[in-house]
From TrEMBL:
The organism of origin for this protein: Kluyvera genomosp. 2
Molecular function GO terms recorded: DNA binding; DNA-binding transcription factor activity
HTH lysR-type domain segment(s): 5-62
InterPro entries associated with the record: HTH-type_LysR_regulators (IPR050950), LysR_HTH_N (IPR000847), LysR_subst-bd (IPR005119), WH-like_DNA-bd_sf (IPR036388), WH_DNA-bd_sf (IPR036390)
Tree of life domain: Bacteria
Keyword Transcription regulation: yes
Pfam family, one: LysR_substrate
Protein name: Transcriptional regulator
Length: 302
């Protein structure tokens, strides 16, 4: 290849892949359709291969187009980060930072960490994304999320990322106060209860799935599954379901008088980690945030 693609080529392909049509992509980019089509042809000529398949239904990527699009998104995110770091050097408190975390972080240490970070760097544009680590990882890998915090199964760590352990959180089974099984200490005695279980293909809940498979197989009623904490706790309070949560969640939700912890001691603890892309060094802003996060996690009573 004599010449490398231009940034405008990468931006054009990224938007077309997301929009699914030349017309919609041109509108998003503020360009005319002929101009965008010309940019895409230039990119295909530069690479010497077809990247797009055009049909009445819209645009789809070829195999080569899919492979190049993924790399192009990462390159664009790296360029954005590089520009942000230069801005941070020139203007000490500027830049952007995108953080992803699970509900446990949101309900415990995050408010204090965010306040400390914004006091030190008030002009940094901080964007927050809440979700299980499994849903955040694609954004971490392609550079859209600078830093994520979530539970990691130490036996099956995710690929393509750097991992720093932060803390270990005990989990427990909870029920509404007054539930007929509220004092039950034998896990197997709970197999006829109604269960709502977190849904996640990795991390702590996958670890639970693996370790408690014999118990799950004996449940009399197929469990409900959701990744929504609010839905889960409402089903516990209103419909006599049991669920599994981190012990540290009951206090910030002000549920100590409404839910009780069952005296079951067979659940493993969860390891929570900071996670970032293996391809990219942490930006200065991400390092500042991680320093404050470490301190808060070490001081918190999990």
């Amino acid at each position: 290849m004599k010449y490398l693609p231009k940034v405008s080529h990468l931006q054009a392909l990224k938007q077309v892949a997301r929009s699914g049509s030349i017309r919609a992509a041109a509108r998003e980019l503020g360009q005319s359709q002929p101009a965008l089509s010309r940019t895409l042809r230039e990119l295909e000529q530069t690479l010497g291969t077809q990247l797009l398949l055009r049909s009445k239904e819209g645009i789809t990527l070829t195999e080569a187009g899919c492979a190049f699009s993924q790399r192009a998104e990462w390159v664009l995110e790296e360029l954005r980060r590089a520009a942000d770091e230069v801005e941070q050097i020139n203007h000490a408190t500027h830049g952007r930072l995108t953080i992803g975390f699970s509900s446990l972080i949101a309900l415990t240490v995050f408010p204090a960490v965010a306040d400390a970070f914004k006091q030190a760097l008030p002009q940094v544009a901080l964007t927050l994304k809440e979700g299980q680590l499994s849903s955040l990882l694609p954004g971490v890998r392609n550079g859209e999320i600078d830093l994520a915090i979530g539970s990691v199964d130490p036996m099956r760590p995710p690929e393509g990322v750097m991992i720093e352990p932060l803390f270990t959180a005990p989990f427990c089974i909870v029920a509404r106060r007054g539930h007929p099984l509220a004092n039950e200490s034998d896990l197997m005695a709970l197999r006829r209860a109604k269960w709502l279980l977190p849904e996640s293909p990795m991390g702590y809940y996958q670890q639970l799935q693996n370790e408690l498979t014999p118990f799950y197989r004996q449940l009399a009623i197929a469990p409900l599954r959701t990744d929504s904490v609010i839905t889960g706790l409402n089903m516990v309070l209103e419909s006599d379901y049991l669920t599994i949560v981190a012990r540290a969640m009951s206090q910030p939700l002000q549920l100590e008088g409404k839910i009780v912890t069952l005296p079951v001691s067979t659940l493993p603890a969860a390891q929570y980690c900071a996670v970032w892309s293996q391809k990219s060094a942490l930006t200065a802003n991400a390092q500042q945030f991680l320093t404050r996060l470490r301190e808060a996690c070490q001081a918190y009573s999990w």
